[in-house]
Amino acid sequence: MTEEIFRSDAYARTCEATVLAVDERGIRLDRTVCYPEGGGQPGDTGVMRLADGPEVRIADTRKGAQPGEILHIPAQPATWLKPGMCVTTEIDWARRYRFMRMHTCLHLLSAIIIAPVTGGQVGDGYGRLDFDLPESPDAAEVNEKLNALIKSDAPVSFRWITDTELDAHPELVKTMSVQPPRGVGRVRLVDIEGIDLQPCGGTHVAHIGEIGAVTISKIEKKGRQNRRVRLEFPSPTPPAA
């Protein structure tokens, strides 16, 4: 298993690691700051450097076939990398920070619109959630409530519960199409103080004020019982923390 530095510290931008394996699937390290695609959030991009050699551009990060396996996908083949080599990995921080802000913002949205979530996507500067709703909510009202919550600057914290504890509290799971990441016997909860509590393996900001202003750009009818709410950040966006 790869040590998931991003899980304990979403603000870590770089780390040293040892190469475990390199093949057609990707590069495996003993530890990484790169978040692998999952839960609607894209995988990280970045660079991997040897102290005295060339660098490898990381085009994507994905989960492997085994629990805890993380694949760093190089933009070009990096067959010269060998197990045992020491590398420094650095993520594209500005891109990741936009994902963190939007992912946390979508948690806030799910606390404002009280309905099961049928789908979602964290994009670069935009995002969406689909809700199991027969009628569309009022966009102006949702927009006002969302930005008011953001201004409260509530802290975001994390704690872990066992799979058994989660099974005993199914109300914590808001998503109908995406289940919390399992396989290691415990599940991480994301707690936005006084606002929202739900399982999630993604990366998030430490205080919701970091999200900045957002706009409800569109609410669409995507079926008899499905409403899609789209968000976006105005331009320019706040600088990365």
Question: What does this 3D model show about the protein?
Answer:
The chain folds into two domains: 89 residues, Elongation Factor Tu (Ef-tu), domain 3 (Beta Barrel), CATH 2.40.30; 138 residues, Threonyl-tRNA Synthetase, Chain A, domain 2, CATH 3.30.980. Helix content is 18%, strand content 37%. The chain contains four helices and 15 strands. The chain has a six-stranded antiparallel β-sheet, with no helix packed on it. The longest helix is centred in the middle third of the chain and has 20 residues. It is globular, with a radius of gyration of 19 Å. The mean pLDDT is 91.
Short description:
18% of the residues lie in helices and 37% in strands. The chain has 241 residues and is of the alpha+beta class. The protein folds into two domains: 89 residues, Elongation Factor Tu (Ef-tu), domain 3 (Beta Barrel), CATH 2.40.30; 138 residues, Threonyl-trna Synthetase, Chain A, domain 2 (Threonyl-tRNA Synthetase, Chain A, domain 2).
